[in-house]
Specification:
heterodimer; A: ATP Synthase, domain 1; Single alpha-helices involved in coiled-coils or other helix-helix interfaces; B: Pyruvate Kinase, Chain: A, domain 1; 5-stranded mixed sheet; two-stranded parallel sheet; 6 helices; elongated
């Protein structure tokens, strides 16, 4: 299978650098898959679940937050605030964040706050989802 | 003159203080190194982000983006688009970054002086203060603080910067504030605790986002699709960039604070050293004079004894 260079950069660290067969990530428009020789593009990334496959390997999952993705000449750069592997996610914390966000949503406050809580919920839910994909040891 | 006991006590207290200032010096220096290292970790990300923003705002479609001030562009008819008149009533936000604690030389005073001179220019303002020192100062002046932040656990974190960004950009997007100024201390090379800088954080000036001619050439050749369009991608990542900017300002200020404290503590150490020297000298003087006095007393006493002994002897001789 053809591969492309993938760089996943989070704010405080470089998450993954190397070849990749396929990448699936949440864009503003919905889930989006990228394979080798994708047309050049730039798009916004929203909080959600990111999946990439290293050549000959299995799918690797991670929870990502807001950012962007750039595809240029078979080189893909993902710039997001945070990326977490399933084993790095604190399930309890994510659950708590999700509960808090749900509570905020119920309070029916200003639109701005509603949107914020919604984002918060999306982040927490994606974390929880990804954390379930932990590899069996 | 003080007694030896008093001076000894004094020396002990100076030594104790010196121990504290010395410890503070060391703590500041490790804190600074740590914060600097964390900032360096985030550098590649934010540089990349800035590069992408630069590329995007070169696009025609980015015109009118909320986060960027429009430069007077040449209209289609060749005439300049008139610049919007400065609104006197517009509300301006100030993000002032101070320290949580004093004992850092003139660090806090410099920041506050700069902030005050800037705030005076705007009748309507909103204050966002980082640090306990700034909060107390503005509160003491009866100025309304919209929100104050403390350094969590004495260390600037990206999470903190994001929270500040969320609050400020929200107001900015709502239109409650039209400009955001940030007043912080730039670390520079760490010479003498850095310089106070006040910058306009939002809207961004397009001039600060210019491409190298080389890169501009490269950009022309590549044709990139934007999904769904330039504007939404830009809007999606600019807040991240703002957070990065605030974070680096926080770290810069934090490093400056620590370095100001280091030089203040260094000066305190030197002063203590000097004080100890003079106190030691004084102590020796007092001790010496006490010894001399004792010797004089002893010898005077023994002479007196001798005299009276002689007298007695001579009297006894007379009797015999």
């Amino acid at each position: 299978m053809n591969t492309f260079e993938l760089h996943i950069l989070a704010a405080e660290r470089s998450f993954y650098e190397g070849p990749c067969e396929s990448l699936i990530l949440p864009l503003t428009e919905g889930m989006y898959g990228i394979q080798a020789n994708h047309v050049n593009m730039i798009a916004g990334v929203v909080p959600g679940e990111l999946t990439y496959r290293v050549p000959g390997g299995v799918d690797e999952h991670a929870a990502c937050s807001r950012g962007m993705v750039k595809v240029e000449n078979n080189e893909v750069t993902v710039l997001v605030d945070t990326v977490e592997r399933p084993e790095e996610i604190d399930v309890n914390r994510a659950q708590r964040a999700a509960d808090e966000a749900k509570e905020e949503l119920l309070k029916k406050r200003s639109r701005q706050e509603y949107m914020k809580a919604q984002m918060e919920l999306a982040r927490a839910m994606s974390r929880l989802r990804v954390s379930k994909l932990k590899k069996p040891r | 003159m003080a007694t030896t006991k008093e001076i000894k006590n004094r020396i002990k207290s100076v030594k104790d203080t010196q121990k504290i200032t010395n410890a503070m010096y060391l703590i500041s220096s490790t804190k600074m190194t740590k914060a600097k290292k964390e900032l360096d970790n985030t550098r590649p990300y934010f540089e990349m982000l800035k590069k992408q923003i630069i590329t995007m705002i070169q696009m025609k479609e980015s015109a009118g983006n909320l986060y960027f001030r429009e430069v007077p562009v040449l209209g289609t008819d060749g005439g300049e688009v008139p610049e919007a008149a400065v609104n006197e009533k517009e509300s301006v936000a100030f993000l002032v970054i101070t320290a949580d604690k004093g004992l850092a030389g003139a660090y806090n005073q410099n920041i506050i002086k700069e902030a005050m001179s800037l705030i005076k220019k705007y009748p309507s303002y909103k204050l966002y203060v980082v640090g306990e020192y700034g909060r107390r100062y503005f509160e003491g002046r009866g100025m309304n603080i919209d929100q104050s932040f403390l350094y969590t656990a004495q260390n600037p974190t990206l999470e903190r910067a994001r929270e500040i960004t969320r609050i400020i950009t929200k107001q900015y997007i709502d239109g409650t504030i039209s400009k955001v100024f940030i007043v912080y201390t730039d670390f520079r090379n760490g010479l003498m605790g850095g310089d106070v800088v006040s910058e306009e954080l939002l809207p961004f000036d397009r001039e600060d986002f210019q491409l190298d001619p080389e890169e501009a050439e490269m950009l022309k050749d590549s044709n990139i699709e934007y999904m769904p369009d330039v504007m939404s991608v830009l809007n999606n990542i600019v807040p991240s960039y703002v957070a990065g900017y605030i974070y680096s300002a926080l770290v810069d200020s934090f490093c400056s604070e620590q370095s100001a404290r280091m030089s203040a503590m260094d000066a305190a150490n030197n002063n203590a050293e000097e004080l100890l020297e003079t106190l030691n000298l004084e102590y020796n003087h007092v001790r010496q004079s006490a010894i001399t006095q004792e010797i004089t007393e002893v010898s005077a006493g023994s002479r007196g004894q001798k005299k009276s002994k002689k007298k007695r002897e001579s009297r006894e001789e007379g009797l015999n």
